[in-house]
Request: fold
Amino acid sequence: MPALARPEHFRRITLPPREAIVAADCDVLVVGGGPAGFGAALGAARGGARVILAERYGFLGGNATAALVVAFMSYYTEHHTEEHSDISLLPTDHGRGRPVIRGVLAELVRKLVKAGGAVAPSLATGFTVPFDAEIFKLVCEDMLHEAGVEILFHVFASGVLENKKHVDGVIFESKSGPLVVRAKIVIDCTGDGDVAAAAGSVCETGREEDGLVQPMSLLFRLGEYEKAAFAEYVKQHPDQWQGVHGLWAMIDRAEAAGELDLQREDILMFRTPRDREIYVNSIRVCRVLGTDVWDLTLAEVEGRRQMRRLVSFFKRYVPGFNQTYVLQSGPSVGVRESRRIIGGYKLTAEDILHAREFKDVIARSTYPLDIHNPKGKGTLMKRLPAGKAYDIPLRCLLPQGMKNLLVAGRCISGSADALASFRVMPVCIATGQAAGVCAAVSRSLKLLPKQVPVEKVQKALLAQDADLGSQG
Reply:
């Protein structure tokens, strides 16, 4: 069945005025319950603020659960040599990396592992953390409940009550009709910067040269994976599998036979806490934007088409998958890149690759520039110097001109290339926690976020076990 076509010419009509239910008033409103929103809500609540978290789905996790991005990418420093350039992120000298993100992330990982819902980071996992999406939902809910965070599910942010760059409240669409949550401080953790854009924040989208963004992906989970059979194949063909990606010769054969039209150069798979399951992240839908409903529809339909062909490929060509089947595809397509809100500082690729430090650091990362080709095949990886990390300044979370609004997650202030590093979930949790802490300090001092001395924010973050590098 074809998707609804995009109109050639948009027509607009004026809607009648309407009333909304005032659902609540709070100190801090966090919009979006993904990794950034989870970190923000905990950071603010543990800082003493009354926090409401509003989420469009009926569960927490965002891309971790709705899009089945079920692995935290490495937040450990890398040990590498010039000869090592593949994207497995496995240290070549067998040295042990060190984590540069602690706080909420470290606590979440510990609880997931204890619940049997994650594999602890180690050299064997490339210091990634594979996890179970369902246990992830439960652990996140428990942690927010223990912190006193109030949650409102099934609400979609559609607008703001804004007065001279002060966001008095956010408008939500719901089954109960339009709702408004009023707040002293609002944190946009929507990923796409929806609240900030609605409030009039300056934003950018895509690359400078053509406006294109990194492709979307539909992730899926396969059952009846025969681990031993696949391991034997890898043993016999070591050139075909490195870290979490490979199968190049098989891909070439299937494409030559007209049985596969892979949009990326390799197959990317992640282990799970379950021995007979594997997650696949090898779908690319290019030239689509996560803030466009027609593009999102196209990406969902095209993603499932590519998934069908990939599953047939696995069953026919890959040892260990002859009985495999799809356990689940992501309820939502995964969006890597959309809006970036321009703040007091714009993080650059040079900042990342030179492992720059900032006096107003509120989070750190070691993840490389991981740029998926917006036009199709190809992944460009540019890594930090061995053992190094870069700082993210508080100014990246403060949208230009806005009074009481912060942003966290992949929509913070940075260039398109820089986003290719800070978009991953561990970093989103860290910037979320920092935004939440800043909001709580702002309320306690009765100051606007941009007026809060950064030393106060850093002190509160350190009290929540954040890693601030040389400022810690």
